[in-house]
Design goal:
- This protein has about 500 residues and is α+β, with helices and mostly antiparallel strands.
- It has three domains: about 80 residues, DNA Methylphosphotriester Repair Domain, CATH 3.40.10.10; about 120 residues, Homeodomain-like (Arc Repressor Mutant, subunit A), CATH 1.10.10.60; about 280 residues, Orthogonal Bundle (Endonuclease III, domain 1).
- The chain has 24 helices and nine strands.
- A five-stranded antiparallel β-sheet has the order 5-9-8-7-6.
- A hairpin with a 4-residue loop joins strand 1 and strand 2.
- Helix 15 packs antiparallel against helix 19, helix 15 packs antiparallel against helix 21 and helix 20 runs antiparallel to helix 21.
- It is globular.
């Protein structure tokens, strides 16, 4: 679609036989080409088009001249396209296309392996395949076999694609020095990064920077698959704003907050700013320079917090039987900090949203560390697990938090500090739920809401929630659980829709 990144002297692009060797597009090529002609956004992230005449692969929404049918090769993933020697388009930016949702990929072992590889890349590390296989409880050989069968490429090729696409996005959308881009995308040295980039994309990182020199970077672009309920997402965060650590401006569709991020044995502190752009169907992410070493990890967490990888089509279809007006593009708000989200849930036990926000405000004012930012409303960081675990229980109690909640908060913080509980997307679901419910003051309701917000579990169902009971007209948890069978495996989205109706009446 776009002129190739390579010069005319470069080797010829991939031919038809190379592309055909991959289990590319899982559908009819005529239908794929029809989607390309229509620029159908519903195929964005599900379909990629390699053009043999240029050696470039694109998203189906790319706005350049449509290539001839005989020059198109269709792929289900970016890794398959790159394994066939196609290079990413500079205009439509395949690296920002919506990805497969965690809910879909986690159903298979190969999907779980891909999610773990993605997480390692975003954290700037290189996972060992034997260690990855051991974590999933299979042999290295078996993992490679099922990964190849599922994704069309081996784990190493998939890893290389993810690292280089992250690097390309950082080079294009940020002003990070090339050496920092190399480290942030998981390369051990600048030399290896330059060699890998040149081998795969046939130009060096500096040349890509020169091609993008016309405009100053405006932040990373994160696409979503439409429809997306921007008003509902911003409204959720706005009703829960804690002054000092976050701010929401519904008029400008902007969310800003402070963030502390662990990275290679240190804690990086800074801020992020998110601006929704419904016209372009994307979010613009900007972050402080202090978070630069963890750009990849921050990017991944933002995708989780805003549920950008969700596929709304099956979710909206499953929720059609809710006794409420439809709300297309509903998303499941995640979190920017797992411990913070868990604390919010604990303090939200048996109180209103407003009451929980008041207690959180006092906790932040008392135990949150100050931070300097260029944003007047961002003054503090959320208290760390260490600060809560080592605090005098009486000092927490003076904030109006009852003794049982104080005990739950400190027990939770101690487990997080010790590493026995990991509060992040991708943490094992059942062991984490069991560990949470073994703590004092944490029952099924709290664990299920943490599963929704922190672990990104789409089928979480806090059956004892009074709001759900009122909305569904029954005080019997077993009865409303039977009603919720129709919404599986998207019950957490049903919870958010019902809560939204309770909070706003809409």
């Amino acid at each position: 679609m776009l002129r190739p990144l390579a010069s005319p002297a470069d080797p010829a692009p991939a031919d038809a036989s190379a592309a055909a060797a991959l289990p590319a597009w899982h559908g009819d090529d005529a239908a794929a080409y029809a989607a390309l002609l229509a620029r159908d956004v519903r195929f964005d992230g599900r379909l990629f088009v390699g053009v043999t005449s240029t050696g470039v692969y694109c998203r189906p929404v790319c706005r350049v001249r449509t290539p001839r049918r005989e020059n198109c090769r269709f792929f289900a993933t970016r890794a398959q396209a790159e394994a066939a020697a196609f290079r990413p388009c500079l205009k439509c930016r395949p690296e920002i296309a919506p990805g497969l949702s965690q809910m879909d990929s986690s159903r298979s072992l190969a999907g779980a392996a891909a999610a773990l590889i993605d997480a390692a890349v975003q954290a700037g590390s290189v996972p060992s395949m034997p260690a990855l296989a051991a974590r999933l409880g299979v042999t290295d050989r078996h993992l490679r076999r099922i990964f190849q069968a599922t994704h069309g490429v081996g784990p190493h090729d998939y890893l290389a694609t993810q690292r280089l696409l992250l690097a390309k996005q950082l080079l294009t959308d940020t002003a990070l020095p090339v050496a920092q881009v190399a480290l942030a995308s998981g390369f051990a040295s600048l030399r290896r990064f330059n060699a890998a980039f040149a081998e795969r994309y046939r130009l060096n990182p500096g040349q890509l920077r020169q091609r993008q020199a016309g405009a100053a970077p405006a932040g990373l672009r994160l696409a979503w698959r439409p429809p997306y309920d921007v008003e509902g997402m911003l409204g959720h965060f706005e009703r829960r704003v804690v002054q000092g650590i976050e701010s929401v401006d519904a008029a400008s569709l902007t969310l800003q907050r402070t963030l502390a991020w662990p990275h290679q044995g240190q804690c990086l502190a800074g801020w992020i700013s998110l601006r929704f752009d419904p016209a372009r169907q994307e979010v613009r992410l900007q972050a402080s320079d202090t978070l630069a070493p963890a750009w990849g990890a921050v990017l991944q967490r933002v995708r989780h917090a805003l549920d950008l990888d969700a596929d709304p089509a099956p979710i909206d279809a499953a929720l059609a039987s809710l006794p409420l007006p439809p709300r297309p593009g509903l998303r499941l708000p995640g979190c920017f900090d797992g411990f913070e989200a868990a604390v919010r849930v604990v303090l939200g036990q048996q109180v209103t949203v407003k009451g929980a926000r008041t207690l959180l405000q006092r906790l932040v004012d008392r135990f949150g560390a100050p931070i300097d930012t260029p944003h007047p409303g961002l003054l503090r960081l959320f208290p760390t697990p260490q600060a809560i675990a080592t605090a005098d229980p009486a000092a927490i109690g003076t904030l109006g938090i009852v003794r049982q909640r104080v005990g739950a908060l400190q027990a939770l913080a101690a487990e997080v500090v010790a590493g026995r509980i990991v509060l992040a997307p991708g943490a094992p679901l059942q062991p984490t739920l069991q560990a949470l419910q073994a703590l004092p003051g944490i029952g099924d309701w709290t664990a299920q809401v943490i599963a929704m917000r922190v672990l990104a579990w789409p089928d979480a169902w806090p059956a004892s929630d009074i709001g759900l009971m009122n909305a569904l007209g029954s005080r019997d948890p077993k009865h409303i659980t039977r009603l919720a069978q129709a919404w599986r495996p998207w019950r957490a989205y049903a919870v958010m829709r019902l809560w939204h109706r309770i909070e706003t009446g809409a």
